[in-house]
Each structure stands twice: as C-alpha cells, then as structure tokens.
Records
---
Amino acid sequence: NEPYNKVKTDVLVIGAGGAGLRAAISAADAGLKTTVVSKSLIGKAHTVMAEGGIAASLGNVDPKDNWQVHFGDIMEEGVYLSNWRIAEILAKEVPERVFELEKWGALFDRTPDGRILQRAFGGHTYRRLCHVGDRTGLELIRTLQDQALHRDIDILDELYITKLVKDGDRVTGAIGIKMNTGEFYALSAKAVVIATGGAGKVYKVTSNSWESTGDGIKLAYEIGATLMDMEMFQFHPTGMVYPPGVRGLLVTEGVRGEGGILLNNKMERYMLKYSPEKKELDARDVVARANYAEIQAGRGTEHGGVYLDITHKSPQYIKEKLPHMYMQYLEFAGVDITKEKMEVAPTIHYQMGGIRFDPETCMSSVNGLFAAGEVACGLHGANRLGGNSLADILVFGRRAGNSAAEFAKKESLVEIPEDEVQDQISSVLSFLKEKGTNPYSIMDQLTTAMSDNVGILRDEDHLNKGLEKILELKKQYASLGVPGGRRYNHGLLACMELKSMLIVSEAIVRSALLRKESRGAHARTDYPKKSKEWLKNIIINKDGENMKFDYIPVQPTPPELAQYYKPEVYS
Ligand code: FAD
C-alpha cells in the first residue's frame, strides 16, 4: 500500500479564488475547523486576473440605481434564463459585500467627495462597477487572503483534488495529490464547498489562466451532482490578437467603460450600426458577434482583429484609469495605447453553465456538497454581465461557507475508507509510464475542435463534427502516459486535467445540439431566433457512462419580482 496523509476537517473548501476564500472566512467565523485547498499557490487563483470591477448598485455616481434595476439588468441581459431568486439575492446582497471588503481594507477608486467610484460597463443601466483601476481582482484577492490568513484556516496549496468521496448520498471528503511533493492526501470533511472556477481552457483562444480546466465540474458530476446550462459559454468581445503568444489575453471592458470605441479597417464606428442605443456598451454577446462579423466580412485589422481606440482621452487619464492595460500593451505588443489603437478580437472568457445549486443554501444535488463562483450555475442565464462574477463570488461564496458550516454542525465525520484512497492513488499513478499517448497532443486536438466547431456561431453540422472528435479523443484517454516521477510532474497534471476538459467539452456540445434556438451566448445560424419553447434550463446528470439530459422550465418566482422586470416573456 502507498503511504498518504490524512486530514480531518469540518468544512473542506476546494479552491482559493474569491469564492473559496470568502466561503472559508464564513465557515471559520462560524467556529468550524476549515481547510482550503488549491491547485496553484495561494494568491494565484484566476480571480487575481479580474480587471474591470464589481457590480453593486451603490448609486454613488448614478443615484437612481438600486437593487431592483440591477436585478432587471441581470434578467434582461441573461435573456431570461437566470434563476429569479439567485439574481434577486445577488442584487440585494452585493452592496453589503463591497462595504465589507472596504472595511477589510480594499482600496477602491474614489469619487471627488470620497465615496467608492463606479464605472459604466456593458448591459448595466447605470454606472455600477466598483473598481480599483483595472486591477480589481488583485485587490479583492489580496483583501480576502489577508482576512483568511488572520483566521484559523488551514491552507494546503498546490494540492490537486482528483476525486470527491461519498458515503451513501452524502459527500464525505476528497482525495488529491500535492503536486510539489508528490504526496497523496485523503481529506475527510463534514461538508465540502466546491469553488474551482471555470473551464475556459477547453478552447484554444481564451482569456483564462492555466487553472481553468473545469475540474470542479468533473469532480461534482462524477459523484452525481446535476449540471445546468453547459451550452452557455461567454466570448468576451475584446482579447489581444497580437503577438501570437498573448492571443486571447483579456482587454478589459473597462476600456469601453472609460470611453473606448470600436473601429473597423475603414475607420467606421460599426457599433452605431449593430447597436445604435447601447453601442460599445451593449451586452457582451452582442458586441462579440459584431466584432466577429466585421472580421469575417474582411473589415478586420492586419492580424485578424478590429481596432479599440481610446486615444481621444488624455494620456494621464488613460494611465490612471487603465494602468494595467497601458502596461500590458506596452510590454507585450510594443503599443502605447495613449497614442495608438489596440487590435482586439473575441476570446473565450466565462462559463455561465456549471453545477446547479439551491439559491438559499448553495447546496448542489449531492448532500453536503456546496458550490459557489464560476463553477456554479444559475445567476447569469445566457449571458453574464461584466462585474457580476466578482459580485457572485462574494455573495455566494459567503452564503456557501455559512451553509456548509450549518450543515457540518449537524453531521459527524466519516473517514474515507483506505481501499478507496489506494484505488485512487493507483489510478493516478497509472499515467506514469514511459510509453503512452501524450496528453498535450490530445489537449491540442480538443481545444482546436472546440474552437473550430463550437464557437461564437454554431450549427448542427459543426456541433456534430465537434462531438465526433471529442468521442474519438475520449477513446484515446485510456492510453495516456507520461514519463517522470510524481513530484512536480506537469505531464501527470495534464493527464488528470484532460479528463475534466473532455467531460466539460462533451457537456457543452451535447447541450448546444439540444438547444435549437439562439439565445445570448448560444447563437445558432440554423436556428437564428429565440424561441419561447426554450425558456428552460438544460440539465445533465451522470447515468452510468452516459450523460442524461432533462429540462427545467425557468420559474418566474418569487412572483413579486415581476414588478421590477418584464414578466410577459414568461406567459
Ligand atoms: P477562481 O478564481 O478561478 O479560483 C478557482 C480555485 O480553484 C483556484 O484556487 C484553483 O487553484 C482551484 N482549483 C481548481 N481546480 C482544482 C482542483 N482540481 N484541485 C484543487 N484546487 C483546484 N469578473 C468580474 O466580475 N469583473 C471583472 O472585472 C472580471 N475581470 C476578469 C478578467 C479576466 C482576465 C478574467 C479571465 C476573468 C474576469 N472576470 C471578471 C471573471 C472572474 O474573474 C472569475 O469568474 C472569478 O474570479 C472566478 O472566481 P472563482 O473563485 O469562482 O474561481
């Protein structure tokens, strides 16, 4: 038998991004023994990359703003697929979470009279995004990390979770490998919060970090959690296009929020045509498709993008409001954005689908398994509004931590059985062999197939092609192998991540084939219209080796919310 480390805790939080850290703070404050694990180093989670801000209706800049308008914006721009109660909770609770961050030391940009400054973002009726220049995620993580480290929270970083464990219908912990030492861990817990972020790495061109391989989706799905809206994957309208090494890297919506305009190679401001009212600040799906259409029509730039221009603002203003963008273009592309236009194109950005959860408790369909953040699904419907993800991780991270703590107080610890740990260790180590299929080659084929066939515009033929390729690659999974040992072996990590990527990709494509309409981020050229029949969420459950699909009509509840929003679309 292989040796391994045993950890016993009340609440296990998987993920140290904003959602995970906020959950851990709540669980620890409830007096429970709390352990956080993350596959990268603490402070390096994907949240750190967030730029533009946190959406909260403080009304500091536009006094008419309130939670009801924020709620209406979520429903409208999510094209009616969002869960009403989840949207209501977010809109009501996020101002308090922003003030809490401020109390904990986050240094937001300020209005002249000293209140938190708010900027415009696409699809938000009012200027709503609380920000720290264009480095909001860094400040958020720094603040939460500081709070977490001052509490009695155990942190195990570079610990990659490979499996969740169940006893009957309840989750009882997780098994993983510490990548820097090669040691295995069995972590028994009374409750588990999954906060593993998104899956943008299933596409070739993405704004996401290396971590976003959809592990949480796989972990939860494999022990019976229900997934939802997996076809809904957001393209951000503006990613870098050049040089090739940085293709896909995000160009924050903050540039357009601060007045940046989009131009084609004829120097036409084409958003006046695609969206005369909202122009560059329409919802992301609309602007992304407009950029794509201009490029496809041959009106793109030298490197296959469109222009984003903010040179009409003063250099001082640009450097103050967009310091990160200024440096990013200067260092990576040799472009001074105070004098020159940026070249941008759509890039995969955010997974709206994920683990279905109960709005009040954040519990998934598996007893004791709570989900929060990008891995969870229900808030954004068919299209996420910028700023609502940082809002989401604070509001639902806190709620998930509280609920997990309540749950853990009532449960006893069930230790993970030795044979289950040994089986998992053998399964991980089976990838270590001299001769085997290279995981990076499969990843490359998978991401190419996803980008080529399941992109910004979809149709049945391409989706079927994509599915065929995924199924072919799935068959090759069994033959994967990498040389080397178990310590710091990136190839070994890739073998494990690839499993998540295959499951996520299959779920996206199969759901996309089922949804025979166009709605938000899901645009089908063969079904170009939105259909009332499709006012429903597609859910997925594991059925043996197959995915079982079902539909849940979106419930306009609680009904009193209808006064803040157009309820007629549901009747
Ligand atoms: P993450 O921050 O992704 O954290 C996931 C954690 O899970 C990590 O610690 C990771 O190590 C861990 N993990 C994953 N798998 C495993 C595993 N198998 N075992 C152990 N640990 C694991 N949103 C906004 O609202 N406003 C913005 O301005 C904004 N800007 C953005 C800019 C960029 C460039 C990008 C890419 C996104 C932006 N977003 C923004 C989106 C937002 O940043 C993310 O959706 C959000 O931060 C996700 O937070 P999270 O806590 O759910 O996950």
---
Amino acid sequence: KEKTLAMIKPDGVAGNYSDVIKTAIFYSGFSITQEMLLELNEETVRSFYAEHATKSFFPSLVQYMSSGPVLIMVLEKVNAISDWRNLIGPTDANKAKVTHPNSIRAMCGLDLQRNCVHGSDSPQSAYREITFFFNKSSSG
Ligand code: ATP
C-alpha cells in the first residue's frame, strides 16, 4: 500500500468540512493512519511550500495557510497519491465546480487559493511531506 499526505486547509476546517471530507476519504477506501490538528505558523508554511517561494502569490499563500487550524492526515491505500489527487480535483475550486463537480474542491473550495484541501503530488513529495509533519516511521 501507498501513503500520502492530506491536509484540510484553514478554510476547510473553519467551514466545518472536516467530517464530510473524512466521510469521502473512508468511502473512497483510504484509511487514516495518522492525524493531527494544528495551527501552522508563517515560518512552517514558508518551509512546507518552499517550492513556491518565488511566486507572486506566495505571501498571500503564507497568510492564508497560517490563518487558522489545519487537519493533517496520512492516508493509506493502494495508489493513495494519485487517487487522493483525483478525489480532490483541480487546484482552482471555481474550475473544479465546472469540470469535476463531484470533487472535494468543487464541494468545499472557494477559489484558486482557498481550495480547502492539499494532497502530495508524487512519491517524493509524499515522503517529504509526511516526514515534515510526522516521525519517519510513518512514511513507509
Ligand atoms: P496543493 O499543493 O495545496 O495540493 P496544488 O498542487 O493543486 O495544491 P500548487 O500549484 O502546488 O497546487 O499550489 C499550492 C497552493 O497554492 C494551492 O493549493 C493554492 O492554495 C495556492 N495557489 C496556487 N496557485 C495560486 C495562484 N495562482 N494564486 C493564488 N493561490 C495559488
């Protein structure tokens, strides 16, 4: 089985979407092996999203991601990484509502930035992101 890092972002937690998202997670055959509710500080967000540091939206992303609690989860199933990315849908929640109406971002997201959930995009980023938040024995 494969593991991926999923996160319910501040807009998702504040909008009370955690339960409906977890229901979709279980319904889609994932198990949640680790779970942690925490508030990210700006430094942690900058480090987590370091690949976007030069983008024009980075300061806004840092502010948004540190604006309230997030729910961080390790999801496990066969093909977890791509299956979770498919379940959450495209980055822009407004586009998701048109092209992927059953996706989590279509249901819970607000716009291009406030898209309610995160998912690792490759085995390398899944490993990096799981070990970023949890101990190394969780990442296998
Ligand atoms: P994530 O990495 O959170 O799963 P993603 O892989 O779909 O999302 P990325 O391109 O890695 O998207 O961007 C990371 C996050 O930065 C997005 O989820 C979104 O919240 C925000 N973001 C991306 N592009 C923009 C943009 N052009 N304007 C504002 N915010 C953006």
